[in-house]
Amino acid sequence: MYIDLLIKIKNAQEAGKKSLKTPFAKMDLTIAELLLKHGFLKNVEAKGKLAKQMIEIDLKDEKAIKGLKIISRPSRRLYSGCKDIKRVKSGYGTGVISTSKGIMGDKEARKQKLGGQVLFEIW
Fold first, then answer.
1. Tens of pLDDT along 56-103?
2. 19-23 and 54-59 as β-strands: parallel, antiparallel, unpaired?
3. Domain 2-59 fold
4. Burial of 21: CB neighbours in 10 Å, binned 0-12, 13-18, 19+
Protein backbone atom coordinates (compact mmCIF):
# COMPACT_ATOMS: atom_id res chain seq x y z
CA MET A 1 0.00 0.00 0.00
CA TYR A 2 1.11 3.57 -0.61
CA ILE A 3 1.65 4.32 3.10
CA ASP A 4 4.37 1.66 3.29
CA LEU A 5 6.03 3.08 0.16
CA LEU A 6 6.12 6.61 1.60
CA ILE A 7 7.61 5.45 4.91
CA LYS A 8 10.25 3.39 3.05
CA ILE A 9 11.24 6.39 0.92
CA LYS A 10 11.44 8.73 3.93
CA ASN A 11 13.46 6.24 6.02
CA ALA A 12 15.87 5.47 3.15
CA GLN A 13 16.43 9.19 2.63
CA GLU A 14 17.06 9.75 6.36
CA ALA A 15 19.56 6.85 6.37
CA GLY A 16 21.44 8.41 3.43
CA LYS A 17 20.74 5.63 0.93
CA LYS A 18 20.94 6.31 -2.80
CA SER A 19 18.18 3.91 -3.89
CA LEU A 20 15.63 1.39 -2.66
CA LYS A 21 13.53 -1.48 -4.01
CA THR A 22 9.96 -2.24 -3.07
CA PRO A 23 7.45 -4.86 -4.30
CA PHE A 24 5.42 -3.79 -7.33
CA ALA A 25 1.93 -2.38 -6.94
CA LYS A 26 0.29 -0.27 -9.62
CA MET A 27 -0.78 2.42 -7.14
CA ASP A 28 2.74 2.58 -5.65
CA LEU A 29 4.24 3.00 -9.12
CA THR A 30 1.78 5.80 -9.95
CA ILE A 31 2.56 7.61 -6.69
CA ALA A 32 6.33 7.19 -7.17
CA GLU A 33 6.04 8.63 -10.71
CA LEU A 34 4.04 11.57 -9.32
CA LEU A 35 6.74 12.22 -6.70
CA LEU A 36 9.33 12.06 -9.50
CA LYS A 37 7.34 14.60 -11.52
CA HIS A 38 7.20 16.98 -8.53
CA GLY A 39 10.94 16.71 -7.91
CA PHE A 40 11.05 14.57 -4.76
CA LEU A 41 12.79 11.59 -6.45
CA LYS A 42 15.58 11.18 -9.00
CA ASN A 43 14.37 8.13 -10.98
CA VAL A 44 11.63 5.46 -10.85
CA GLU A 45 11.66 2.15 -12.75
CA ALA A 46 9.60 -1.04 -12.69
CA LYS A 47 11.90 -4.03 -13.17
CA GLY A 48 11.51 -7.78 -13.35
CA LYS A 49 8.97 -10.28 -14.58
CA LEU A 50 5.32 -10.12 -13.60
CA ALA A 51 5.47 -12.50 -10.61
CA LYS A 52 8.60 -10.93 -9.12
CA GLN A 53 8.32 -7.37 -10.36
CA MET A 54 9.92 -4.65 -8.22
CA ILE A 55 9.91 -0.87 -8.23
CA GLU A 56 13.42 0.58 -8.10
CA ILE A 57 13.56 4.14 -6.80
CA ASP A 58 16.65 6.38 -6.96
CA LEU A 59 16.65 9.08 -4.31
CA LYS A 60 18.01 12.59 -4.71
CA ASP A 61 21.35 13.42 -3.09
CA GLU A 62 19.94 16.15 -0.87
CA LYS A 63 17.00 15.55 1.44
CA ALA A 64 14.12 16.42 -0.87
CA ILE A 65 11.37 15.26 1.50
CA LYS A 66 11.22 17.52 4.55
CA GLY A 67 7.90 16.29 5.89
CA LEU A 68 5.01 13.94 5.23
CA LYS A 69 1.46 13.81 6.55
CA ILE A 70 -0.76 10.83 5.73
CA ILE A 71 -4.37 12.02 5.51
CA SER A 72 -6.43 8.99 4.40
CA ARG A 73 -5.91 5.64 6.06
CA PRO A 74 -7.76 2.37 5.53
CA SER A 75 -9.76 3.02 8.72
CA ARG A 76 -10.46 6.69 7.97
CA ARG A 77 -10.79 8.01 4.45
CA LEU A 78 -11.06 11.73 3.79
CA TYR A 79 -12.74 13.04 0.65
CA SER A 80 -12.63 16.60 -0.61
CA GLY A 81 -14.37 18.52 -3.36
CA CYS A 82 -12.34 20.58 -5.83
CA LYS A 83 -13.16 23.83 -4.01
CA ASP A 84 -12.15 22.39 -0.63
CA ILE A 85 -8.67 21.18 -1.63
CA LYS A 86 -6.20 23.10 0.52
CA ARG A 87 -2.73 24.27 -0.47
CA VAL A 88 0.11 22.45 1.28
CA LYS A 89 2.55 24.71 3.14
CA SER A 90 1.36 27.77 1.17
CA GLY A 91 2.11 26.06 -2.16
CA TYR A 92 5.57 24.82 -1.13
CA GLY A 93 4.40 21.20 -0.78
CA THR A 94 2.16 18.89 -2.75
CA GLY A 95 -1.10 17.20 -1.82
CA VAL A 96 -1.80 13.88 -3.54
CA ILE A 97 -5.41 13.07 -4.41
CA SER A 98 -7.02 9.97 -5.88
CA THR A 99 -9.64 11.21 -8.35
CA SER A 100 -11.89 9.57 -10.91
CA LYS A 101 -9.19 10.34 -13.52
CA GLY A 102 -6.35 8.80 -11.50
CA ILE A 103 -3.89 9.90 -8.86
CA MET A 104 -2.71 13.49 -9.24
CA GLY A 105 -1.31 16.46 -7.36
CA ASP A 106 -3.51 19.04 -5.68
CA LYS A 107 -2.76 21.80 -8.19
CA GLU A 108 -3.66 19.59 -11.14
CA ALA A 109 -6.89 18.44 -9.43
CA ARG A 110 -7.90 22.06 -8.79
CA LYS A 111 -7.09 22.97 -12.39
CA GLN A 112 -9.23 20.10 -13.75
CA LYS A 113 -11.94 20.83 -11.13
CA LEU A 114 -11.82 17.31 -9.69
CA GLY A 115 -12.31 16.22 -6.10
CA GLY A 116 -11.54 12.88 -4.55
CA GLN A 117 -9.82 11.04 -1.73
CA VAL A 118 -6.98 13.07 -0.20
CA LEU A 119 -4.17 10.51 0.27
CA PHE A 120 -1.29 12.48 1.78
CA GLU A 121 0.62 15.75 1.86
CA ILE A 122 4.36 15.98 1.24
CA TRP A 123 6.76 18.90 1.45
1. 999 998 888 999 999 999 899 999 998 999 889 888 899 999 999 999
2. antiparallel
3. Ribosomal Protein S8; Chain: A, domain 1 (3.30.1370)
4. middle
